[in-house]
Amino acid sequence: MIRERISNAWQMLMGNKGRSILTMLGIIVGIASVITVVAVGEGAKDAVLGQFDQVGASSLLVGVSSGQATENDYLTADDVDAVRNLVTELRFVSVDYQLIGRTDKFGDSTAIFVTGVDQDWMRISNLTVTDGRQFSLPELDRSGASIILEEETAERLYPGRSPIGETLEINRRGKLLEVEIVGVGHSIVSQLSGWTGMDVDRLMIVYMPLSTTIDLGGGEPRFSSIIAMAQSPDRLEATGEQIVQVLENRHGNQGENMYRVTETAQLLEQADLVANVFTNFIAIVAAISLLVGGIGVMNIMLVSVTERTREIGLRKALGATMNDIMWQFLFESSILTFIGGV
Amino acid sequence: MSNAWESEHILPEPVITMRDLHKFYRSASVEYHALRGIDLTINEGEFVSIMGPSGSGKTTLMNIIGLLDNLSSGYYELQGIDSSDLSDTSRAALRNRTIGFVFQSFNLLPQMNLIDNVALPMLYAGVSLRERRERAREALSHVELDRWSEHRPTEISGGQQQRVAVARAMVMRPSILLADEPTGNLDSKSAEAVLKLFHELHDLGVTVIIITHDINVAHHAERLIELFDGKVSNDSLQATHHEKKAGLS
Ligand SMILES: Nc1ncnc2c1ncn2[C@@H]1O[C@H](COP(=O)(O)OP(=O)(O)O)[C@@H](O)[C@H]1O
Ligand SMILES: [Mg+2]
């Protein structure tokens, strides 16, 4: 008997192919859009979090809290060496040193955001080259005049071609330096730039050997922060405390709370927070489209029940019970949803 | 329960009995008193017309006779069964087996071909597929439309559709045929063909009840019941077309 009812429902659907197909299309589009939205949301979240995974959970940043800091509180290359020698559980240590130069190569004077890098910096910040090559050790040690272009910057300035081998002149307060582009790559700096509000679209982001950058900046610089990577994530806090201790001893500013430790894990948490907001937003969008889809299907069924009151009346007159009618509609909508869903 | 299709001759026995029957339509704001105390008995094998102006309650009465709607007060008995005793399932079964419906607008399902339309009542009666096909074909050939059995309702004329509807109404061999304005949408020639089928059924012993406001159609019946304002205003036996024609020839 059930087989006969199903075949009767099928017959009714086939007898009104136009509406059946449209209804099914509605269901297909509804389900597809929900799946797409959810998949896109998950993908985007994974991509965002994936960038931060590369940083590792074990790096940190010790910075001068600039409020009441004096020139004396800022950090020097000797501080970095001291930290390297005295803090035992450290894997890598480097400075966060950036300066802004200009170039006329691309028409009007363009700002260049230069990040100074050394071996440790590349390890901590995970500088990955996608075109050309990495800096060589001699380049890093002996102030080589080479730069690595950040990927997006390269794409913008050299659309569709490789900038490898090109030279450009960087002007920093009247000081000129001709550099060769040896590679294109990205690091956590460029990835973080989006989060720190840096205008990637207008800035040129490049990496240059730290010693070269310091020379360009004009001799003995003072750094505002050093970056470091601990042996393991669970030693992060202890490492941070040790670094602060070393710095306070050297600068004689114990108890002034001059140095602040930021774990990239905290950045990660922030990013996670952002990602969660994103995920929630996507979830709400998905929920709304599911609701809209559901209302759509309900509406179609309602319309079909209303427009079929005549048919229902007729079937009742021919001896159908309310149960029979309910089953018929259930079978019809199940067939539609099943085929549509598949 | 006696079956008119099997008995050659029977003593008049009431198939429909109504006592002081009232029907109110209630909506949120208004209450309409559509039937205001109907007393009516229709015997097995009668050919009855129910006439009355539009809005007098004819369709309401037919829906109650056919167990498609509930009465508000009073008493209604169909083939000896008190309608107030019936569950939805038994109402459906009683409708299915004892009453054939014919409507003004034919009400064939456009999604199905003619033979499946005719076979539909048998689906609800649980008749096997083979027997359904057989009996539906038989019924279609009785109304001379078996050639069209695989066609859709939209492919045939209104008169032909109404004949299919009659075939559907008789396929369960009901004892009562209820027709609400069956000729209202038909030209006179098609109407004659449909009325001829009604007479054939009547001759087989089926109780035929036609609702109409066409006096010419009403004159096919032996008994004319007139409704006015939800009450029976007149109920009389009359000479039929058949008898008149027989008298003339
Ligand atoms: N479902 C309903 N709800 C409310 N009023 C109704 C309903 N059906 C019919 N009526 C009213 O009951 C009266 C009788 O209707 P009906 O039996 O259809 O008359 P007829 O078939 O004689 O034209 C009419 O005034 C109509 O408006
Ligand atoms: Mg009516």
Task: Kindly describe this structure.
The complex is a heterodimer of chains A (342) and B (249). With 342 residues, chain A is α+β, with helices and mostly antiparallel strands. Chain A folds into 2 domains: 119 residues, no CATH class; 209 residues, no CATH class. In chain A, 55% of the residues lie in helices and 21% in strands. Chain A is built from 12 helices and 11 strands. In chain A, strands 3, 4, 5, 6, 7, 8 and 9 form a 7-stranded mixed β-sheet that branches. In chain A, strands 2-10-1-11 form a 4-stranded antiparallel β-sheet. In chain A, strand 7 and strand 8 form a beta hairpin. Chain A starts with a helix and ends with a helix. The model of chain A has no long low-confidence stretch (mean pLDDT 80). By secondary structure, chain B is an alpha/beta fold. Chain B is built from 8 helices and 10 strands. In chain B, the strands form 2 sheets. Chain B has a 6-stranded mixed β-sheet, with helices on both faces. In chain B, helix 3 crosses helix 4, helix 3 packs parallel to helix 5 and helix 5 packs parallel to helix 6. The longest helix of chain B has 16 residues. The model of chain B has no long low-confidence stretch (mean pLDDT 90). At the A-B interface, helix 1, helix 11 and helix 12 of A face helix 2 and helix 3 of B. The complex binds adenosine-5'-diphosphate (ADP) and magnesium ion. The site of adenosine-5'-diphosphate has 11 residues of chain B, from strand 2 and helix 1.
Short description:
The complex is a heterodimer of chains A (342) and B (249). Chain A has 342 residues and is an alpha+beta fold. Chain A has helices at 2-15, 17-55, 77-86, 119-125, 137-141, 151-157, 188-196, 210-217, 236-251, 264-307, 309-317, 322-341; strands at 59-64, 90-95, 98-103, 110-117, 128-132, 146-150, 167-172, 175-186, 204-209, 225-230, 259-263.
Chain-wise SSE layout:
The complex is a heterodimer of chains A (342) and B (249).
Chain A: H1 2-15, H2 17-55, E1 59-64, H3 77-86, E2 90-95, E3 98-103, E4 110-117, H4 119-125, E5 128-132, H5 137-141, E6 146-150, H6 151-157, E7 167-172, E8 175-186, H7 188-196, E9 204-209, H8 210-217, E10 225-230, H9 236-251, E11 259-263, H10 264-307, H11 309-317, H12 322-341
Helix pairs in contact in A: 1-12, 2-10, 2-12, 3-9
Chain B: E1 14-26, E2 31-43, E3 47-51, H1 58-65, E4 73-78, E5 81-82, H2 88-98, E6 99-102, H3 114-125, H4 129-142, H5 158-170, E7 176-180, H6 188-203, E8 207-211, H7 215-218, E9 223-228, E10 231-237, H8 241-248
Parallel strand pairs in B: 3-8, 3-9, 6-7, 7-8
Antiparallel strand pairs in B: 1-2, 1-4, 4-5, 9-10
Bound molecules: adenosine-5'-diphosphate and magnesium ion.
